C-alpha cells in the first residue's frame, strides 16, 4: 500500500509480475515484470515510486506510470 492507502500492489501470477491498482475502485493502473524469482515484498516510497524485493540478489525500483 502507498502511504495514503490509495494505491496497492501485489504479485499477481506465477511469473511474479506485480500489478498496481487503485484501492477504492480496484482499477488496474499497471503491471510490472518484477523478477524471475519469488516476490517477497513490495515497499512504496510515495504515491509514485516503489521497491520490489525478491529472492534475487538485487532490489527492483519502479515508478507508477
Written overview of the protein:
- This protein is mainly β and 65 residues long.
- It is built from no helices and 6 strands.
- The strands form 2 sheets. The chain has a 3-stranded antiparallel beta sheet with strand order 1-2-3, with no helix packed on it.
- The mean pLDDT is 93.
Short characterization:
This protein is an all-beta fold and 65 residues long.
- String of helices and strands: EEEEEE
Number of domains: 1
Inertia-based shape = globular
Taken as a percent bin, the fraction of beta residues is over 45%
Q: Low-confidence runs (pLDDT<50, min 5 residues)?
A: none
Distance between the termini: 16 Å
Determine the number of helices (DSSP H or I, runs of at least 4 residues). 0
Give a quick account of the main beta sheet: strands, pairing sense, barrel closure. Answer: 3 strands, antiparallel
Please state the average pLDDT score.
Answer: 93
Sequence of strands across the biggest β-sheet: 1-2-3
Number of DSSP strands? 6
Radius of gyration: 11 Å
Question: Which structural class fits the helix and strand makeup?
Answer: mainly beta
- Bin the helical content: under 10%
Write the SSE topology.
Layout lengths: L6 E5 L5 E6 L5 E6 L5 E6 L4 E6 L5 E4 L2
Antiparallel strand pairs: 1-2, 2-3, 4-5, 5-6
InterPro entries: WD40_repeat_dom_sf
Question: Which characteristics define this entry?
Answer:
65 residues; mainly beta
Amino acid at each position: 500500500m502507498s502511504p495514503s492507502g490509495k494505491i496497492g500492489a501485489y504479485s499477481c501470477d506465477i511469473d511474479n509480475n506485480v500489478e498496481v491498482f487503485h484501492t477504492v475502485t480496484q482499477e488496474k493502473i499497471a503491471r510490472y515484470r518484477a523478477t524471475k524469482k519469488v516476490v517477497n515484498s513490495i515497499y512504496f516510497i510515495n504515491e509514485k515510486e516503489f521497491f520490489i524485493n525478491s529472492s534475487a540478489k538485487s532490489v527492483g525500483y519502479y515508478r507508477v506510470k
